Amino acid sequence: xxxxxxxxxxxxxRLRFIFDRRDVLGSLFxxxxxxxxxxxxxxxxxxxxxxxxxxxxxxxxxWDYVGLExxxxxxxxxxxxxxxxxxxxxxxxxxxxxLVLGKFxxxxxxxxxPGRKLVxxxxxxxxxxxxxxxTVAWQWMFDSLYSVINWTLIALGLxxxxxxPNWLGTTELAMIxxxxxxxxxxxxxxxxxxxxxxxxxxxxxxxxxxxDGAGFWRRNYQIIVPMILPIVAIGLIxxxxxxxxxxxxxxxxxxxxxxxxxxxxxxxxxxTGIVSGDVSHGxxxxxxxxxxxxxxxIFMLRFIRRREI
Amino acid sequence: MARATAAGVAREASFYGAVAxxxxxxxxxxxxMLITSFKSxxxxxxxxxxxxxxxxxxxxxHFRYLFEQTLFVRWLWNSLVIGLCVxxxxxxxxxxxxxxxxxxxxxxxxxxxxxxxxxxxVPPTLLFLPLxxxxxxxxxxxxxxxxxxxxxxxxxxxxxxxxxxxxKAMPPEIExxxxxDGCSLAGAFFKMTIPLSLPGILTAVIFTFxxxxxxxxxxxxxxxxxxxxxxxxxxxxxxxxxxxxxWGEIMAGALIASxxxxxxxNLFLDRFIAGITGGAVK
Lengths: 309, 282
Description:
Shape of chain A: flat
Largest sheet of chain A: none
Helix content of chain A: over 70%
CATH architecture of the largest domain in chain B: Orthogonal Bundle
Radius of gyration of chain A: 26 Å
Largest sheet of chain B: 2 strands, antiparallel
Low-confidence stretches of chain A: 1-11
Low-confidence stretches of chain B: none
Order of helices and strands of chain A: HHHHHHHHHHHHHHH
Number of helices of chain B: 14
Structural class of chain B: mainly alpha
CATH architecture of the largest domain in chain A: Orthogonal Bundle
Helix content of chain B: over 70%
Number of strands of chain A: 0
Number of strands of chain B: 2
CATH class of the largest domain in chain B: Mainly Alpha
CATH topology of the largest domain in chain B: MetI-like fold
Oligomer: heterodimer
Distance between the termini of chain A: 44 Å
Order of helices and strands of chain B: HHHHHHHHHHHHHEEH
Mean pLDDT of chain B: 86
Distance between the termini of chain B: 44 Å
Structural class of chain A: mainly alpha
């Protein structure tokens, strides 16, 4: 007992004071993380906002204030308007397709069958593997000459070689291709989210509903779907944010082409701000993501708050 | 009866059809990577050949070229160094922060935690312009160290959130017992909480590492010299000469870089989902 008391009293009383005060230690522990995020997310974000109202380029790094001029010029640009609508089509298309695939995939994987573990492990791959690497594999599958998809269609007698589509070289097909690739990348995540939600629905609730005469569809749409809605919403929020702001898929597969048919905000911001060095216009283009992000953040906050209560 | 069995068979068939569909959808691009990387060029670039199997004997020439004639090994090394440094920075900042937000700071901690997590949703495509100026002013342009600096901006929020949930799930009585036994509050954290939360910390390590491997946008923005590129950027952008894509080498490189991430995800998937949904399931 005496030995314990000794070790307690040993440390310098001042240090002891810091290490025992909850509020002091709490702030001390959280400070480095907050500081890092403030300096490298908060400050750059404000810089991006300032760039968008300045005349900054890498060749002329002045901070002259030009007001909303950059935004006005951008909005008048038909190419940009195309980019904006492309971004919505790209996001909406790939999220819808991803969700449908995700819901069906979850239903399939819910039922036990031999080899389910293996199928589940493989189904995770599109989402786990670095997007850039999976995208180059798809680019190769969509190759204008050696496309395995075209080869199969020809072999099945559906088309002739002369009719073989140039997936990434025609405007509509290129958009469909990038949507498919992005949906493909997202659907395992949707499956996992749906599975997590469905398995969390208590079995006794379902049993009670069955006893009360609810059939498969009724159980599905009046019990399971409402109960898993919060978790699906969070999954969807992630999907929307990462799709709406995506650059990799479009950059690697189409470079925004052909004729800007697949140019999206992230890509356009990159081309303008980094490749051409027109930082102010690039920043203004990127900031068009903000309204969508804000809406998403508000939704996210509501869901998190609901969980806390 | 016969009709019922026929319907049953049809249902089974459509179920396994659906299984097969998802199997092919998910796995085919990787099969395509695999087979491309072992095919000889004369086999690859011949439209008359059946593309699904070897028409000429398999070859290791693409792997050999990749390891001997390109900077592939250097890219692997870069990715490893970047990943380890980012893991170190993330752990040092996120573990105490998560503990503080989960245990020490009460209601403010709750809001701060949500605030930190929301920064995870600020996309690279919004920040890459100012960050590239920041990186340049620090003299890190075109250097892999710029990525070591910038990657924690998304790994710290992610891991703080992940670990917050983990610490909250731990019974506080453990630290209280240590404090009663004479530990300071900080001592209880270092001597009791950290050793007991090693599984959670390991999850954070794995995901930090895989997040750095998956990142593409910042790497593309900051780095143009081949010898500074991480693996993903190198394989996706550096194995092209003019208009010629070295498909065999690209697919071989993609395959090698994908395997560790694929394994990590499959092992730690449940924790990842619990982490990002923040326990919305419970």
